[in-house]
């Protein structure tokens, strides 16, 4: 099993000394400052490309019609698949989930799926027989720390950008329309949760940083990932062990996280609006729709 | 879920008759098994877990799905804390079998491993492994908390030097996730029914400080509820720590009285009566 | 797996063990007699959430917990060809009544064994679970108890957990614990009749045991209570030389010439004791109640670690002893190897060598005989387990 290369003792000491004595991060950011977050959408619906500094993540949403699970006949299926390939960092292996990958996929699962961000009931087509299965594939293209926040942002962006083919039910016949016949429809979306990860440094975790890069992640003594939406609802908190941190500090982290989440939320809304404007070719789509409407008869 | 917890507002009693700040009965034993270096049995209400600790020892051939933390592999200068959880098929009401690759179990293993690695003095045992194996016999909420407590007790029994107890419990809130009602009460130590319906979190603290080693929240809840829940949870952890400490002391006194161990110098402050 | 784990004993220690176990009578390291079991602590009914549960703790600290959980399951209607072994049974049933056929299916029992540190698809774990379920399902009587009606049956899940690390081969421990858990297992009383959807009594106190108890002590005088059937017990027996030793510890197992897992069941004397059981079955009542009516269910050989010890590298080919001295020494080296080989096959006083070849049939037969004989070990074990309070 290839092991991740650890930073040298000098590097570690330098980083910690800079942090604790000089209050300076290696890349000169403020403690609660994110690296520049960039989001671009693909030509297709449901493809989101997120970069956070050197961390790059591609998320792609897709949908197909399947049979719902027997125990949940009224719900559609929603899965998030994560893949950390050797492309992202040399110590990842194919087909062998590392702890990082397991924890990442659990976090995304809890943040997006279990918090009910996607209305799975709206994915049901015929109770117990047909439903949409929505799947998001998360590919880590480049790993430079803070995969969680970037991946979560990418997943939410991809899902909100995604359009699934329109369907209709008439006399028990289910019709799925191609994009040419009917404009695809967005998913039933309830709220947009985002992850914010704090990393702690020092003997008692007294220094807290946002958006740690890979080097900082290797040196940190504990971390907490807080998932919130802009309405101030916590969807998930995960401080999975590590050096104990004062409870009050955690509360402060949460309130700072809330402001960050609101920023993310606005940024995503702006980007979506921008993309919608770019796609709206005005007359052309409108014309298509009118033509389709006339066919009925 | 049409379960009636709304009755809480009438009598301020929960489904099992507790008040908001009451723990369930915690029963614990240490040194339950002769073969292991350390062992414990812990009940929190109807949640029952057993823990067996072996080590610190030379790392054997890696087998099974163990999850390491606190320094990767046996080659590092810190001991590796390897946790293995078996959730018995008969532990819940409906038999549900989980494979060893189950992500939820892997997450639990990793959490416990990381939490203990921060409290245990792993730097004293380079190139070695501390094997913690946990068995869940019965589940009724607060599973992670019970696992952490049992693991802590077993590590104490195994005589592995540690900073302090890592004590854990759960806290919840009577508000539903959507409502932002200010009148909602925090609740201590959730059982399975409450966990299904109400938002809640698991807290583990180090000793009787307010320092949080583990904080896991898996349900939607208003940010404003967090402070109350966390405060109650941290307070509950202190109560749990007292109980764990009593268990250890009672066992220690008993062992001295039975003559299994000699009365050491460090034990002078212990009252033997 | 557990039987093959390495015991850190030197050849001299092994030789000493082997020699003392070969004496008549053998001297065991812990001073037990050859047929004596290690002391154990047992309790049942520890988990109210299960249909039956048991925990056994051996004196060496190995501990196991078994939980039995039952679920109602719809019986799959089987189409046309029944499997071979059932066709005989079918023939008998055809002439009496079609709709009163009580049949069982081995799929109705699911057994899982969890050994800490071992994957559940590890060969050793699978082998253990196969041995345990084989003994349970061997006579086809057990699954009949799970029959509810034509359309439904109980599906029984047996979860066997070894709590401690496997210090000695855990088979006897797991088997005894399973035995107790099954004895303590109860299924809700059926209230519905015939083939309707099953409806059960809520009253747990009224729930009958899976293995019905012999009637109350008071009535013993009137009715010669038929010894109730019981779940099987699998015992580990090993032989060193001509000595047969029961319940071997890990160290003893390391020098075993042969080790057997013998599964023994008890048949309810009134019904099935026609041919398969010992001819003494039709004896006088007094003797009948005393001893158990034992039947041999299965015998499996267990590979003792000695059989799996890799033969060491002779010094001649060990580079540490200058095996790669050069090509011109090839002749000399060959000679050395020859010598090494003869040295290896010769017995040396005080140095133990793994036995070669199979076990003697006579020894095997005696081992099985010893288990089954009246007042023998299986009898004793079952008596001892009778003493466990079932609640």
TrEMBL record, chain A:
Keywords (A to Z) from UniProt: Cytoplasm, Exosome, Nucleus, RNA-binding, rRNA processing
SUPFAM superfamilies: Ribonuclease PH domain 2-like (SSF55666), Ribosomal protein S5 domain 2-like (SSF54211)
Span of domain Exoribonuclease phosphorolytic: 33-165, 192-258
A Pfam family this chain is assigned to: RNase_PH
Localization per Swiss-Prot or TrEMBL: Cytoplasm; Nucleus, Nucleolus
GO biological process, one term: U1 snRNA 3'-end processing
UniProt GO MF annotations: mRNA 3'-UTR AU-rich region binding
GO cellular component, one term: nuclear exosome (RNase complex)
Chief site of localization: cytoplasm
Similarity remark: Belongs to the RNase PH family.
Name of this protein: Exosome complex component RRP45
TrEMBL record, chain B:
Compositional bias segments (type: Gly residues): 66-75
Molecular-function GO terms, alphabetical: RNA binding
Domain Exoribonuclease phosphorolytic: 22-161
Pfam families according to UniProt: RNase_PH
Gene3D superfamilies noted in UniProt: GHMP Kinase, N-terminal domain (3.30.230.70)
Region listing for Disordered, in residue ranges: 53-76
GO cellular component: chromatin; cytoplasmic exosome (RNase complex); nuclear exosome (RNase complex); nucleolus
One BP term from GO: TRAMP-dependent tRNA surveillance pathway
Top-level taxon in the UniProt lineage: Eukaryota
Stated family: Belongs to the RNase PH family.
Protein name in UniProt: Exoribonuclease phosphorolytic domain-containing protein
Automatic annotation (TrEMBL), chain C:
GO cellular component labels: cytoplasmic exosome (RNase complex); nuclear exosome (RNase complex); nucleolus
Gene3D superfamilies according to UniProt: GHMP Kinase, N-terminal domain
Keywords on record: Cytoplasm, Exosome
GO aspect biological process, one term: nuclear mRNA surveillance
Compositionally biased intervals (Acidic residues): 86-98
Biased composition (Low complexity): 264-277, 315-327
Compositionally skewed regions (Basic and acidic residues) per UniProt: 328-344
Claim: Chloroplast is one of the keywords in the record: no
InterPro entries for the chain: Exosome_comp_Rrp42_subfam (IPR050590), PNPase/RNase_PH_dom_sf (IPR027408), Ribosomal_Su5_D2-typ_SF (IPR020568)
Start and end residues of each stretch annotated as Disordered: 77-99, 264-352
Compartments (UniProt record): Cytoplasm; Nucleus, Nucleolus
GO molecular function terms attached to this record: mRNA 3'-UTR AU-rich region binding
SUPFAM superfamilies (alphabetical): Ribosomal protein S5 domain 2-like
PANTHER family for this protein: EXOSOME COMPLEX COMPONENT RRP42, EXOSOME COMPLEX EXONUCLEASE RIBOSOMAL RNA PROCESSING PROTEIN
Family membership: Belongs to the RNase PH family.
Protein name stated in the entry: Ribosomal RNA-processing protein 42
Organism: Neurospora crassa (strain ATCC 24698 / 74-OR23-1A / CBS 708.71 / DSM 1257 / FGSC 987)
